[in-house]
């Protein structure tokens, strides 16, 4: 199965869908939850029959669908065919698509040496160093946006004004920290509610957890300011 180019995807005439990053993306306005659940069930049956399964998100007013062929790292004819099936299922139920509301968020990190930090960020974001492939960290469970490493010239570590907070269960803190250290990171410092990790190039992220936090207290914005 060959990965399709953007012009090839456009030529398929999928009016309900948009090609965003490595996916076909659609949002169907189901208006109420019951209609959305019925559409999701129909999509599930069709996906099982075809042996090709999309990512589906059901919310009160809509159903969002992402299609990609993971083995090829992008959109193939299998996705085109499944997109047509899903659009037909929505049409049968009088459900309209809203392609203009679709979007895909990808994080990008400039680095002169992505190999030095790729596994660290794979661990921090997904818990597994093996989710760093080629030049991108991709979470197979879909819990966070992709992180893409953009090649840049070597430079001094800048003053960091943007960082990621990853909130995890307390029991996952130590295993993820140990894996991050094994991937070349270090612990910068920690508070009772979050631990600051730093990659080999000085980029920082927080592993956060709720245990030990006073739920009635103010968020620890002052402590977070120390990261900058």
TrEMBL record:
Keywords: Lyase. Gene3D superfamilies: 2,3-Dihydroxybiphenyl 1,2-Dioxygenase, domain 1, Transcriptional coactivator/pterin dehydratase. SUPFAM superfamilies: PCD-like. It catalyses: (4aS,6R)-4a-hydroxy-L-erythro-5,6,7,8-tetrahydrobiopterin = (6R)-L-erythro-6,7-dihydrobiopterin + H2O. It comes from the Bacteria. It holds the Pfam family Glyoxalase_6. Residues 107-208 form the Glyoxalase-like domain. CDD domains: PCD_DCoH. Its EC number is 4.2.1.96. One of its GO terms (biological process) is tetrahydrobiopterin biosynthetic process. Belongs to the pterin-4-alpha-carbinolamine dehydratase family. PANTHER family: PTERIN-4-ALPHA-CARBINOLAMINE DEHYDRATASE. This is Putative pterin-4-alpha-carbinolamine dehydratase. It comes from Tessaracoccus aquimaris. The lineage of its organism: Bacteria, Bacillati, Actinomycetota, Actinomycetes, Propionibacteriales.
């Amino acid at each position: 199965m060959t990965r399709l180019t953007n012009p090839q995807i456009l030529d398929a005439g999928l009016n309900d869908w948009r090609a965003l990053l490595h996916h076909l993306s659609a949002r169907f306005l189901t208006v109420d939850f019951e209609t959305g659940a019925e559409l999701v069930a129909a999509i599930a049956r069709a996906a099982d029959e075809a042996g090709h399964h999309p990512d589906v998100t059901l919310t009160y007013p809509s159903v969002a669908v992402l299609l990609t062929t993971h083995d090829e790292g992008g959109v193939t004819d299998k996705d085109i065919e499944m997109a047509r099936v899903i659009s037909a299922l929505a049409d049968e139920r009088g459900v309209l698509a809203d392609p203009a509301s679709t979007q895909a968020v990808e994080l990008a990190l400039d680095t002169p040496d992505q190999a030095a930090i790729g596994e660290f960020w794979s661990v921090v974001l997904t818990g597994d160093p093996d989710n760093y492939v080629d030049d991108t960290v991709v979470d197979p469970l879909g819990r966070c946006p992709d992180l893409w490493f953009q090649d840049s010239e070597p430079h001094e570590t800048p003053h960091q004004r943007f960082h990621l907070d990853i909130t995890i269960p307390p029991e996952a803190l130590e295993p993820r920290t140990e894996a991050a250290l094994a991937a070349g990171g270090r612990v910068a410092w920690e508070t009772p509610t979050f631990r600051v990790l730093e990659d080999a190039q000085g980029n920082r992220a927080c592993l956060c957890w709720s245990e030990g936090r006073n739920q009635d207290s103010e968020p620890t914005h002052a402590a977070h300011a120390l990261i900058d």
